[in-house]
Amino acid sequence: MVQLRAGNPQQKGSRPGPAYAYNIKALRDRDMLIAAQAEQSYERFVSQWKARRQKTGTRAPQSGGRK
């Protein structure tokens, strides 16, 4: 409305919305490839995780605790 009052011409017709890109198969395929690569990278990252050793020593929490 403000644009019309400022003297700009009226815009007619429908413009493609943000989801329009998914009508283009090449863009969908590219997004699928990026997602697959990210998933593979995450799986590699997680597979290299190692469990931590339990802490021992004076500052470690005591199992059993005091009552």
Architecture overview:
The structure is a single chain. Helix content is 40%, strand content 0%. The chain starts with a helix and ends in a 20-residue tail after the last helix. The radius of gyration is 29 Å and the shape is elongated. It is mainly alpha-helical and 67 residues long. The model has no long low-confidence stretch (mean pLDDT 80).
Summarize the helices and strands and which ones pair or pack.
Blueprint: H1 2-5, H2 25-47
Distinct helical segment count: 2
Q: Helix and strand string, N-terminal first? A: HH
Average pLDDT level: 80
CA radius of gyration is 29 Å
Largest sheet: none
The number of E-state strands comes to 0
**Uncertain stretches of 5 or more adjacent residues:** none
Helix share of residues?
A: 40-55%
Distance between the termini: 73 Å
Structural class: mainly alpha
Shape: elongated
- Beta strand %: under 5%
